[in-house]
Write a structure and sequence with these properties.
CATH class of the largest domain: Alpha Beta
Number of strands: 17
Oligomer: single chain
Strand order of the largest sheet: 2-3-1-9-8-10
Structural class: alpha+beta
Radius of gyration: 24 Å
Number of helices: 30
Largest sheet: 6 strands, antiparallel
């Protein structure tokens, strides 16, 4: 795992300062503490920071072909690099290292822009062809590894993290629409960033830069239109086979590994498969809280004991939620998923002993694990009972509609039933509704902010799958996963120089999961039924029955105490006042302390935004 940065001029003859690119790479030292390198050529410079995992003695970057024509910087792991290497050697390629990086050089020479589609792994890389003076960059299918870019004068600038681009003195003007999206969703969806002139290369895309023009191309799209052949039991076996394979290939490397283990079934399944593959016990890491309602350590201990793992534990206390200097520096655009804090601490716990960790990320997106999928499915069925205007009228009079069944009394549910499916799903998955966002955002930004739910609505409508579940899953895979889950995992782990691998996000496994009939994922009002059935012969029955919790933080209680005090302390900041209405935030804080509603999510978002402004917009 590494950090990459570079500048590529529009013309070969333009000077590019290697020292500037070296300074960019140095801002990514946490991603690669084991080595650094810069390569300067005609009209370009590439920088790299290395975390050594594969071919410890070799594999230094930037790496080039013997003739010097091709140069590459690469962040990630190519799990099928040995197969690709054998194929390329059969075509006459001569390798000079055991590194998976070298596969990119020979692969580009053989397959051109088709290279990215041949790779199985997590990756972001940039490759320069000196002879043609063009740059080819690509990002993995799900967006596990980051790639940010910006125009810098007459050059294309790129980096793993935005903080490296700040070394160039880029414009730090914020986008009002991105600020509104952050308040609504907890993150800024791809391909935008909070900065007006900085962009993300979307997942499953490559880009080519030549003559000042930037060409973007999607190379992969998960389809949900397959037809299942065979019975349920045979599909259980197939999924377990692919999960075991995904775990096995993610054990590659020359450094020690340890998995994360929560109380859920996804990380438990990964730990179990890892032990089955290695044939020996492994060490696993977990984080807990003093509040037993949020403490998953007892469940993690049960799972560890059942599969033969040794468990390392750490307790997270509210004062560690307030130690946000690392947070603002690590997440260099606004990001308020509070589970990032325990993710950072479990990564720090793991890094004391290992360099690579395995996680259970992706099990919910691939196998229908979120409760919102069940709610969305029900809403589609209920929407047929009454015309949309009548549902909207009921939503307007709620919560006075005490005569309604309990499961229909929620105002958001009733309003969803009166909304188009894409809009309803966006409302269901959001931390805050547009009206809540605009109550906090200063009025002068409202027009430019637009619709905070627009990226989610667009993603939902872009999926042509007939099943509502598949459209919801496709939306999450396009927005929530790369914008929240994978950002959290990448930044929190790389802040402590730890690589995290996610077997459930293996694209071959996901392509198989996408063919499973939607009805198989639900049984008895439970989500993720198919995966639970498949794992029944491996995991504890109690774990399979346990409700999903994840690294949830007791945010409601903590915002009534020290976090609320921190929010109160930041409301006098003039930079925050340029974007948010302090009086509205104070009102939310008073209501939260009085127990009138739970405003913890918004209060935490305000605190995170204030720290972001202080760190990056001073």
């Amino acid at each position: 795992m590494c950090g990459i940065a570079g500048l590529f001029a529009d013309a070969r003859g333009q000077h590019v300062d290697a020292a500037v690119v070296s300074a960019m790479a140095d801002r990514l030292a946490h991603r690669g503490p084991d080595g650094s390198g810069v390569r300067a050529g005609p009209g370009y410079a590439l920088g790299h920071r290395r975390l050594s995992i594969v071919d410890l003695a070799g594999g230094a970057q930037p790496m080039g072909t013997p003739d010097g024509r091709l140069q590459v910087v690469f962040n990630g792991e190519i799990y099928n690099h040995l197969d690709l290497r054998a194929e390329l050697e059969g075509c006459g390629a001569v390798f000079h290292s055991r590194s998976d990086t070298e596969v990119l050089l020979h692969g580009y020479r053989a397959w051109g822009t088709g290279l990215a589609a041949r790779l199985r792994g997590m990756f972001a890389f940039a490759l320069v062809d000196e002879e043609r003076h063009e740059l080819y960059a690509a990002r993995d299918r799900l967006g596990k590894k980051p790639f940010h870019w910006a125009r810098h004068g007459a050059a294309f600038a790129f980096a793993s993290e935005i903080k490296a681009l700040h070394a160039l003195g880029i414009d730090r003007r914020l986008r009002p629409d991105a600020v509104a999206q952050f308040l609504a969703l907890r993150y800024v969806p791809d391909p935008a960033t909070v900065f007006a002139n900085v962009h993300k290369l979307p997942p499953a895309h490559w880009c080519r830069v030549r003559g000042g023009a930037i060409e973007l191309q999607r190379y992969w799209q998960l389809g949900f239109d397959g037809v299942v052949c065979g019975d349920r039991a045979s599909w259980h076996a197939r999924v377990l086979e692919l999960l075991d394979e995904a775990v096995r290939i993610r054990l590659m490397g020359e450094v020690p590994l340890a998995p994360f283990l929560s109380g859920g079934i996804d990380s438990y399944a990964v730990v179990d498969a890892m032990i089955r593959t290695l044939g020996r016990p492994v060490d696993a890491c977990t984080i807990g809280f003093p509040d037993p309602r949020f403490d998953e350590r007892p469940a993690a201990r049960e799972s560890a004991a059942a599969c033969g793992a040794r468990l390392w534990e750490e307790v997270l206390r509210p004062e560690e939620m307030l130690d946000l200097d690392w947070y603002a520096d690590t997440f260099d655009e606004p990001f308020s998923d509070s589970s990032a804090v325990p993710t950072y601490h479990v990564s720090r716990l793991a890094r004391r002993r290992v360099t690579v960790a395995l996680s259970g990320d992706g099990g919910d997106e691939g196998f229908g694990g979120y409760r919102r999928y069940l709610f969305d499915r029900r809403e589609h069925a209920w929407r047929r009972w009454l015309p949309g205007p009548l549902w909207r009228a009921l939503g307007a009079c709620c919560p006075k509609a005490d005569w309604l069944p309990r499961w229909l009394r929620g105002k958001r549910t009733l309003q969803n039933l009166g909304s188009p499916p894409a809009r309803a799903y966006a409302r269901s998955v959001s931390a805050h509704l547009p009206e809540q966002v605009f109550a906090v955002l200063r009025p002068e930004h409202h027009a430019a902010a637009g619709d905070p739910h627009a990226p989610l609505v667009a993603a939902y409508e872009a999926c042509a799958a007939p099943a509502p579940l598949h459209r919801a899953m496709a939306t999450d895979l396009a927005t929530w996963l790369p914008g929240d889950i994978l950002v959290k995992a990448d930044r929190a782990s790389m802040a402590v120089s730890l690589e995290v691998r996610a077997p459930f996000l293996d694209h071959v496994l996901l392509e198989t999961a996408a063919r499973i009939p939607p009805d198989w994922h639900f049984r008895g009002g439970r989500t993720k039924a198919f995966l639970r059935e498949a794992l029944a012969a491996r995991l504890l029955p109690a774990a399979l029955r346990r409700k999903k919790q994840g690294f949830s933080v007791p945010l409601r209680n903590w915002c009534g105490g020290p976090i609320g005090q921190a929010v109160e302390g930041c409301l006098g900041d003039g930079r925050l006042g340029e974007w948010l209405v302090p009086e509205t935030v104070r009102m939310l804080l008073r209501r939260h302390r009085a127990g009138v509603g739970d405003h913890g999510e918004m209060l935490w978002a305000v605190l995170v935004f204030a720290r972001f402004l202080r760190r990056w917009c001073a």
